[in-house]
User: Fold this.
Amino acid sequence: MAMGARALIDRLKARQPNIKALGQHYLHDEEVISSSIEMAELSPDDRVIEIGPGPGTLTERLLETSNVVAIEIDEGACEHLRMVFPELELIEGDALQVNWPQANKVVANIPYQISSPLIDVITRQPSITQVVILVQEEFAERLVIETLADRGSLGMCVALDWDCEMGPRVAPHCFIPAPRVHSRLVCMKRIDSKVNSRLAKLLIRQGFEQRRKKLRNTLSRAPRRINRISGWHASMYKEAFQSIDSELLELRPEDLKLADWLALSKELQDYASAMG
Assistant:
């Protein structure tokens, strides 16, 4: 018999107080939990990773449908989860550090202070095809690129491999304790990677490191890790960059659409391919 979100939170709180350093705000709103489940389009064949389950309010619902692997850093929460959900596969450790198991989906209410590095980890898991996460609303807007003002390296890089959509807005009173900000559900679905996406990501990240400067200045030096792309090295990049004369280089990074970054990448790649 299901315990429900409130009972699960009360049970963990009876064991230990919230740990502020871990950003623990426990979601208790059953409608929001249901929205997460619906957006994830779960089936019995899915293997789902949940990050930071805490009291298990989302875990309980995930286990009704799918195979679940939870990653939790809090020792006390892990002890609680083992008692309440003995069938749960649990990895005790930091989601940014542990080796992730094979899974095809991620559904989680993630700690807001690790949102950006966690997205990086998630998007580098080749088996993950769909993600539903509850994040701070401002972060969600940057991830989905809700407006022109939200253009940045985070959303642009993710958009090369994922379709992202905003879900329902979640008010502070839906959590215990209530955070000071609104939250938002986001759904990400993997798509076929754009041509030259790896090179485009390096350009995007380097360009936005100094977002007030024109790209002709910020992209003139070889991006870090350029040699991780087959056929590329720093000298080749510098030659390729000097060979192109695109009007896009006179712009600042926030002025470029995703197609523009891909166009720059293609010009560079065409030169490299011609050089053999």
Notes: The mean pLDDT is 94. Residues 197-275 form a domain with the Helicase, Ruva Protein; domain 3 fold (CATH 1.10.8). The CA atoms of residues 160 and 194 lie 6 Å apart.
